[in-house]
Every structure is written in C-alpha cells, then in structure tokens.
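Hey, quick one: can you model this chain's 3D structure?
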Amino acid sequence: MNKRPLIEKYFKARATSDLQAFQEIFTPDVEIYNVHFPVFKGMEGVKAYCNDFQQRIASCMFTIVDILQEENKAMVEWTAQLTYRKDATVAGFTLARPFTVALRGINKFEFNKDKIRCLRIYHETTTVMHLVKEHAQ
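Sure thing. Here's the predicted structure for all 137 residues.
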C-alpha cells in the first residue's frame, strides 16, 4: 500500500500543529522519538508533541525530498523552514527575538495498517543551538 498520502498528511499536520489530524493518523499506542526530546507515547504523548512544537514554532514549512518505502515502513528525507517564536524557551534559553532556520532531516515511519505506529525523527541540532544562543535574552 502506498503510504505517501499518510506521510504527506503527517507533514501538513506537523507544520500546522494540527492535533486532530495527528489523532487520526497515529495509532493509540504510537511512540515518537525526536533527537534530544524524551519519547512521546500514546495519545497523551501526541498532545505533548504537538503542544511543545506549537509553543516554540511560529511558522513552519516542510518539503518532502524523497521517500523510500517498504510494506510497513518508510524513510523520508525532508527539508524545513522553521521560525522560532520570541519568548519561546529552547533548551533552557528564552528567545529575545524570533529567528528562522533551514533544517534537513530524515524520518523513519513504521506503520500498522493505515496508521503510524512509530516515528523516529533525525536532524542536526547544532545550527539551531547556535541561533538560540545568539537570540537568547
């Protein structure tokens, strides 16, 4: 089964912090791993994943670069433009002014039928941390 529509729905929901869409595309026992964050588990974890992003990011746009897909998993290369909010707290720093950063990453999706069962997000964090320190109060 082609998972591209589900993957596209995920990235659209991520860019807009659409909790309802997340609840539709994730299994109830989903696990989300995102580089330096704790593991987000289940629907309560999905809410935390969504809220955390919403509190830090003012705007975001993802572009899917490539998808490698098997029956129950996919690797997706992506790029993103993220604008961090003024007064957002990032890694213990509070931002005095907003900034925009370009990121490139890979997500590994594991599926259970037509839903996402596990998501692993990999991207570099050094650039963001340098910008956070430059823009902190």
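One thing worth noting: The longest strand covers residues 99-112.
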